[in-house]
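so im writing up the methods section and need the Replication initiation protein record in one place, dumping it here so i stop losing it
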Amino acid sequence: MQASDIPHDKLTGALRRKSVKKNVAAIHVSGKLTLLQRKLSNVLLLNAYDTLVTRAKHQIDARTLCLMVGYNSNDMAALKQSLRSLAETTAEWDMLDSEGRQEWGVSALLSYAKLAGGVCEYAYSPALAEKLHDPKVFALINLNIQRRFTSGHALALYENCYRFVRTGSTGWWPIDLFRRLMGVDGSTYYESFKHLNGKVIKPAVNEVNKTSNILITPEFRKMGRQVSELRFLIKENPQLAMLDIDDGAAVRQGAVYGALVEVGVSDRLARQWIAEHGEDYVSEKLDYLKGRGAVSSPVRYLTAALKGDYKDATPMPQPSPEAKAAAEQGVAQRQAVSAAEAERAAQIDGERKRRAALMARIRSLVEARSPTQRDADRRLFLASLTDELARQEFARLSWSSALNVSEMVRFWEEMVPGAFEDLEAPAARA
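--- predicted struct ---
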């Protein structure tokens, strides 16, 4: 079966988290779900997680739900079919209970679901809700990574492997269990290991390694001439910092991000460093940089400090004569700026401040929305963009995309009339 995702960056409400607790019992046995159905199940569990054992039923806006999992927002027929499939899929667990006794159980993935008045209402059986909410054994599944998957087999394999990342291996699985995990049990075609390996294992492994924050390698055991068991060796993907970066809205509000930008670090590099090293470590190296006094290239010095874990007793490399000469030349050039250029710089600064005020207002409008509404707003705005460069920029930077400020102002003025009345934004409204 499959389960869920709950964001971990904030603790006040399930939908405020970036990743989801995937309970071992929930992950370990997979039903025959399509990729979108698997993602739908995760979003439903994410929405319900904080009240799984305290409420008998849960609700989410149906239009928002469609947008979050990739359906056309008006395609209620597809949503109904997926909800029907979840209600028809059984979840099975076989584990030790709180007293150490073996416990086996089975339940429909959803006990019921209904659509009425634009709202999706659904529920889990009490027994399954208890298992899904059990925090004792879980893996953190990042929703930003989940969205990248294009194959249901790959996402199922990722979910079943990721919880073993710290042990480095899944352990040996019988081939029959693996077919069940991938949802291909009962298919005579996949009874052939050649077909299973060629159509399921190899493509899924390739997508996990290309798409996610782990790298997996399959190994096989034979009984006679037949493959009887397999396992996956697991290690963290060194590209984790690049794969795990979200739209950066929360990171950009932090003091560490602001300090990085102040010394000349680019937006993407600042977010990458924070994601890869953590704010505390980056802050420590920023303090170290400040202790060095004036340097000709703060970004280069900071890069070396992060990579070499420089501390107060660590001598920093001195700039070469060429670097010193280049720095001196830069100072001379800056001192030679004419009055006309200075005036132009002031105009640019004024425009920059005006745009910064607009961007700040847009951020406040976004933050006022619920997490599910934010996701829907982002999808709606992206769909409204026709220029490919603008779409790529927004997909990369979300509401911090300066290239799209005019369109974003128009979008939010329609959503919240008068939102920019107190700001002078003639260029944005043109």
